[in-house]
Amino acid sequence: MSFPEGFLWGGATAANQFEGGWKEGGKGWSVADVAPYRPNVDVKDYKATTGVSLERIREAQSTEDTTYYPKRRGIDFYHRYKEDLALFAEMGFKVFRLSVAWSRIFPTGEEEQPNEEGLAFYEDVFKEMKRLNIEPLVTLSHYEMPLSLALKYNGWTDRRVIGLFVKFCRVCFERFGKYVKYWLNFNEVDSIIRHSFITAGIIPELCGERGELACCYQAAHHQFVAGAMATRLLRELVPGAQMGLMLTKLTTYPRTCAPEDVAATQKKNLENYFYADVQVFGEYPRLMFRDLEKRGLTPVMETGDLELIRENTVDFVSFSYYMTMTESVDPNAERTPGNTVLGVKNPYLPTSDWGWQIDPVGFRISLIELYDRYRKPLFVVENGLGMKDTVEKDGSVHDSYRVDYFRAHFKEMKRAVEDGVELMGYTSWAPIDLISAGTNQMSKRYGFIYVDQDDLGGGTLNRTRKDSFYWYQKVIATNGEDLD
After folding, report:
1. Active site residue 144
2. 170-191 pLDDT, tens digit each
3. Which architecture, in CATH terms, is 8-477?
């Protein structure tokens, strides 16, 4: 078996990491606009980059600086979208994943009417994609909620945010439904536990006696309800469109075969699945709900919430995959960073420049586990390698390490399809260099397209095709048959 006919090859981005134009077109402040770049921070210290306080937010709002608040500038897709989309079309993209910045449509999240300039911008983008025969895959919430909602309501901990989000979804479906068939509700919905402010606008000091963890599970419940409402609304307004969930697939192996390590690993994997379980099966998994009860973290629910969730499950399961981890009860076990997580280092795997362990076989394992568990179509919407690239004197970038990474992962993805996994498509993260999500830096490069910008915003922003650009172009043209 080969990849199915019509397989959707492409790439994935997020508005807050590549769009720029943060003060243009009527856009309001988002949580991403106050995320700072802090040079020389240990990659294992995620709290240093993702942690937040009211003081930090006030400090950020006191300046319009884009040097140390790089997500404000991105890579200027806002002005260069035609150029970037043309490059994606040249690679042969069948699909392009992007997000609609909520604060570009409703600057504070509470306006009665949407911002027409923001709507017009995205409509122009979708029209250009249609002209180039690129299918949009749109994320509704990708780490860019209006900052005003975080400050006023402590983000998704407040139930009132549900209605505001659904209003935003309605506007998106009504305005863009004729262009967009595939939608995702919340990017890496499980990440609320790892970086609650970026994911859900939660400011820990506003959580009071409940504590941040209780706020996280309350906010997650509100997102489950909002996601169900959005799915129901999409089916009413855009018949034939599909809604998917998006999970960070954090596949974890036991560090040893000691039963204690196996039990710790099982617990970690079950928590990772929890966020998808609710949206696929339409109910809280019994074991996870019992665990929340024991820890005093059961979210407050209203009558009808569980019925709503049960009746409006997702159409497909999408996920990100970058690395695997191991788990151990040994407190002295060496830990290594991953996708905003720390895991016990696996001695059998190589690591990237940022310490992420590279595991192509784990990709196949993840695909099989997800499909066997959920029995719904899968969509790989993030997978890639962040590395330091060197530009040669002639402007070329010879990134054979990136080609090697993708080739190994595509071989395993193909084996999963041969095993019977129903796979809709694949979008690499990211097809063009952009601001990194966790470390907020530019030098951690993922793209097939090099962008001339350094960590402090210096550079021309000129786009250059790397060697991997031409390799991925060939992969798409042959539907994954030619990986040489």
Report:
1. no
2. 999 999 999 999 999 999 999 9
3. Alpha-Beta Barrel (3.20)
